[in-house]
Amino acid sequence: MNSPPHQTEDFTALVQRIRQWGEELGFQQIGISDTNLNDAERHLHHWLDQGFNGEMQYMAAHGLKRSRPALLQEGTRSIISARMDYLPELPAASQRLLDDPAAAFVSRYALGRDYHKLLRNRLQKLADKISAEIGPFGYRAFVDSAPVLEKAIAEKAGLGWIGKHSNLINRRAGSWFFLGEIYTDLALPSDQPANNHCGQCRACLDICPTQAIVGPYQVDARRCVSYLTIELHGSIPVEFRPLLGNRIYGCDDCQLVCPWNRFAKLSAESDFKPRHRLDQATLLELFNWTEAEFLQKTEGSAIRRIGHLRWLRNIAVALGNGQARPETISALADRSSHDSEMVREHIQWALQTLDRLNV
């Protein structure tokens, strides 16, 4: 970050323009944070010490760079945090899917196009507007692309507070939104951190299908449905399989039950709208996708990262949690000799589970 010095007395007015530009670019909120993340660093190390990260070794792989922004990007003095809503449909529609054992439930954030490229492009445009206003400055934009404590930063920037489920909650917008950051060498005035408004509520702890929220603000990822269906590369532990229900990619239960999400608004972004009927597909439809179909229909989607084998693994478990219909048993049997040992194992589990239902 080797940029010319700037006059700090103008930065208050600049921040107001940044907020305006952010709104014009489709962000619902812009906040400014300093780089002191000491509290978040302690929380992260406590979480790691308990092994709650599971196979997500990247959470510990970068030393202090995750919690000390200037180590990740030299010269960082302040951080621009941006929020963009993504909710594609009313929560009642999600609940109807979860209540239908034949339906496939995909976390709402993954129904449309992958958000990474869209947000990064908008953040770049925001940085370009700042450059046009004040001249060259040092910056780097992030959207889940580096070791960044995005929720802790957003909390300090006043975008919301980290709830008991570890998601960021905004008092006027709930939690259905993406976050992005611009690390900058500008000494921008910081916003006031958001206050916590969870109170005595424990709805998210009680609703979690696998009881992964082991205490307020403590999530054991090894138990989390999102971890088990997305991050975990091997076999899903047998004890968790019945608890997954029909959730084949991620889990939104803790957000669906959060009372603050009554204030959430539907996204106006066309890229976040459901693609390929993922908001209404059955498990059997998706289980029958060939690898070529999977790659074609998940192009530009966050889902593609798990690959076809884990896709089949997850759906096999969901089918095993459903009803013992002839067409379900037939579909599972047709893939029971799959080349992947992992896929075969989960199909066999599903068939055995359904067989017990027929007894």
TrEMBL record:
Protein name: Epoxyqueuosine reductase
Recorded GO MF terms: epoxyqueuosine reductase activity
Role played: Catalyzes the conversion of epoxyqueuosine (oQ) to queuosine (Q), which is a hypermodified base found in the wobble positions of tRNA(Asp), tRNA(Asn), tRNA(His) and tRNA(Tyr).
Cofactor note: Binds 2 [4Fe-4S] clusters per monomer.
Residue intervals of the 4Fe-4S ferredoxin-type domain: 189-218
Subunit structure: Monomer.
EC numbers for this chain: 1.17.99.6
